[in-house]
UniProtKB/TrEMBL annotation:
SUPFAM superfamilies: alpha/beta-Hydrolases (SSF53474). This is Acetyl esterase. It comes from the Bacteria. One of its GO terms (molecular function) is hydrolase activity. Keywords: Hydrolase. Pfam families: Abhydrolase_3. It comes from Pedococcus cremeus. Coiled coil: none annotated. Residues 88-293 form the Alpha/beta hydrolase fold-3 domain. Residues 330-352 are annotated as: Disordered. Residues 343-352 have a biased composition (Low complexity).
Length: 352
């Protein structure tokens, strides 16, 4: 890691990050409301909130009658009459237990402004009060509602993509599987940021990076205890998309962090997508830990990560003809860009 990143993660782990395995339910609930102030020095870490994007609110009906809250981001430059903008559904991270939509304002407003899209961030219910499959069902149902309500959103919901980080990346992949199986809605793209995709924890990086900064193997086990029902089949694709039938899924961008227990989940998933005939671009960012997308100001590759994410989403959401342009190394060949590391089918990182 760079000295700045190392110093920040040390402070994060020592003073700000309370390991989930040491928290009771009351403490977990208390931590869910945490947000970051929108002024320096905090924005030096998280990135500024782009004021060119307006934020509104809505709800989507879940299958059990619950109204799933939505946080909706729309570029102010896009007039209400401009209904040609695509839609990006975003699912936040936090191990299915923690996190909230407000924490992701810096990233979501950036995506709305730079992709020129309406971003809908889904405030799905959290474990342990709502273990699997409720969080996934909330995300699936919210996606279906968004797809059917382009007039309400003043957007073109025929151009729809999903994105999420960590547990949210898992949920984005689950939504893509569910949409494929249901025959719709048609998704143009899935962008998965250091996703957890294998509940069996069989990826080599789980042990290699067991004591990594920000996220440890012990943290992951604690999240699983809260999220997974007793006796759950850990290879069920609704929990572990890596073990699903991946044929016919939308093109994917999978971004991983080299110093992350979940690194190989993402790399294995990208390789499995390619094997199933799905275009998938995998980028392994070296010398950064899990969660780096949330603190771009102290990560040298922060700007590159966001630029790649924006470009991939723009390419697919604005592609002519509907189904999605195919970009990236669909044949597993490695490519290089300055600062990060693209990986080939073997998943080996190339230092930038």
């Amino acid at each position: 890691m760079s000295p700045l990143t190392a110093a920040f993660t040390a402070v994060l782990d020592r003073f700000l990050h309370r390991p989930i395995e040491g928290l009771d339910l009351e403490q977990i609930r208390a931590g869910r409301g945490r947000t970051y102030p929108e002024h320096p020095p905090f924005t030096w870490v998280t990135g500024p909130v782009d004021r060119s994007v307006g934020i509104t609110y809505g709800t989507a009906p879940a299958r059990d009658g619950y109204d799933v809250p939505l946080r909706i981001y729309r570029p102010r430059a896009v007039r209400d009459a401009d209904t040609d903008v695509p839609v990006l559904l975003f699912f936040h991270g936090g191990g299915w237990v923690q996190g909230n939509v407000v924490m992701y304002d810096p990233l979501c407003v950036h995506l709305a402004a730079q992709v020129r899209a309406v971003v809908v961030s889904v405030d799905y219910r959290l474990a342990p009060e709502h273990p699997a499959p409720t969080p996934a069902h909330d995300c699936i149902d919210a996606t279906a509602w968004v797809a059917a309500n382009g007039k309400v959103l003043r957007a073109d919901t025929s151009r729809l993509a999903v994105c999420g980080d960590s547990a949210g990346g898992n949920l984005a992949a689950v939504v893509a599987l569910a949409a494929r199986d249901a025959g719709g809605p048609l998704l143009r793209h899935q962008a998965l940021i250091y996703p957890g995709l294998d509940q069996t924890l069989s990826s080599p990086s789980i042990e290699e990076n067991a004591e990594a900064p920000v996220l440890t193997r012990a943290n992951i086990l604690a999240f699983q205890r809260h999220y997974l029902p007793e006796g759950a089949d850990r290879r069920d694709p609704m929990l572990s998309p890596l073990f699903g039938d991946l044929r016919g899924l939308p093109p994917a961008l999978v971004q991983t962090a080299d110093l992350d227990p979940l690194r190989d989940d993402g790399l294995r998933f990208a390789a499995a997508l390619r094997k199933a005939g799905v275009a998938a671009r995998a980028t392994n960012y070296v010398r950064v830990p899990h969660g780096f997308a949330s603190f771009p100001g102290v990560v040298p590759v922060g700007a590159q990560h966001r630029a790649e994410l924006v470009q991939e989403l723009r390419t697919h959401l604005y592609a002519a003809g509907g189904g999605g342009a195919v970009t990236g190394a669909s044949n597993g060949a490695a490519t290089r860009t300055g600062g990060g590391a693209h990986t080939g089918a073997d998943g080996s990182p190339l230092s930038g």
